[in-house]
Amino acid sequence: MNTTLILRSAFWLLLLGFLAWDFQHSEPVDLRNEPPLIAAGSGQAAAGGHCSMPD
After folding, report:
1. Which of 1, 3, 39, 42 has the greatest count of CB atoms below 10 A from its CB?
2. Residue 9 lies in a domain
3. Segments forming the whole domain that contains residue 2
């Protein structure tokens, strides 16, 4: 067999396996509770800003 084909197949199998495992073990994302990424002009401050900002 071609080495490139084996490596390509192994990569995709590992990637799909990891994604399936992650999907099964992660908490579901609550899209309604997520802070806005860009709050331009909405009057609402964007959350999750720079990590050195004081609270």
Report:
1. 39
2. yes
3. 1-26
Split at pLDDT 50, 70, 90, the class of 35 is: low
Asked if 42 and 36 count as a contact pair (C-beta separation under 8 A), the reply is yes
Find all residues with CB under 8 Å of 48, minimum gap 6, and list them: 35
Q: How many domains, the chain?
A: 1
Distance in angstroms (rounded) separating the CA atoms of residues 18 and 26: 12
Tens of pLDDT along 17-33? 999 999 999 988 777 77
Please give the full DSSP string across the chain, using - where no structure is assigned.
--HHHHHHHHHHHHHHHHHHHHHHHSPPP-GGGSPPS--TTTS-PPSS--TTS--
